[in-house]
Amino acid sequence: MVLCMASPAPSLKVENWLRGEPLTNFQPGKVYIVEFWASWCGPCVRAMPHLIELQAKYQDEGLEVVGVAASEQAPTADEARTKLDAWLTEKFSNLNYRIGFDSTGEMNKLWMDASSSLGVPTSFVVDRDGHIAFIGHPIQIDDVLPKIINGTWRGSYQAKAADAKRIAKDQRLARELSMRRTIRPAMEANDWPTALSAIEEGIAAMPDNLNLREIHADLLLHKMRDTATGFQVLRQLVRDAIEKQSEAVRGLIVVMTQLFDPENDKAHLPRAERFAIGRDVSEHILNSAQASGGLNFSSYRVVAQYYYESGDNQRAIELIERAMTWLDHPKAMPDDMREGAKKYYMPQLLQTLANYRGEKVCCSGSCSISQEKSPGAPKVQPQEET
Predict the structure, then answer these.
(1) 164: part of which helix (H) or strand (E)?
(2) How far is CA 61 from the centre of its chain?
(3) pTM higher than 0.85, yes or no?
(4) Where are the domains of the chain?
């Protein structure tokens, strides 16, 4: 069965109810948020306090929130259930909505697979007549929930357009995943011709897919070392990125990564053409950043490498320092994501800064010593400051 807006809501076939009274069927006259989530999923966990707020805010208007943990990870179902129960007690003692646990795959089959939803968190809103009114990311619920509660959403043009957009997006993601499953074995076997054929087939079907185009460029330039074709691919990517401004910076960063990532061997790449593209693309990235209010840390880092290799050390140092400031800013991203990003990327940025300066650099109790005169940011663990 295909599950979409206006479809009858499937059954709730969970193994255990870990929180709240068991729910066997949807009661007419009530609105339900059925949230598929997992304790290992950062966005899922960040959505839970908001779901608690929604349950409290709309309870008198008939809202019931139901969390469904159908993707927990553990050697056995019993271990997963026990682990999740303890996690809920520790993290969310104030939980005010039901939590169901299922390890059989039945709930995923009925809801996630049937709606072509590919990952958690995914929210389903069940209308007062037991039909699906919304499927999507929980961050989108705030805009539609009041309209669902007052009965004006499901028949609206906006609702139909939103569901059509969701379906198209999920179909694209499904095609990409299928294509990646075809490409991966050939890449792992170093069977470059077969991988190239599969990638080109994928790009023909999904010409706007940046992930496939990035794999394409990397394969040509760094695996097959077909620089003539590889540079043609990069130049086309630059043109497309600038023309389609909604993802211009992301596409241009892909280009800069192929040409200036310190981890790539670039000795075989034509230097003049590499730097000509790098000059134009880096200027475009920085101009776009100024117009939009700034870049994220990964964008600063790859542009800094171009300036470093070009001999403009001061500009390179400035950009790395900006990247470190951005990564340390409390509003850059949610706290849990920021701490994980800082732990992984800050040592690399610190090492890069030390290399650019040619001296020991310290930040927040960690230090790095310049490792080499040549460009790059080797994966070296920072030293504790003494």
Answers:
(1) helix 157-188
(2) 34
(3) no
(4) 16-155
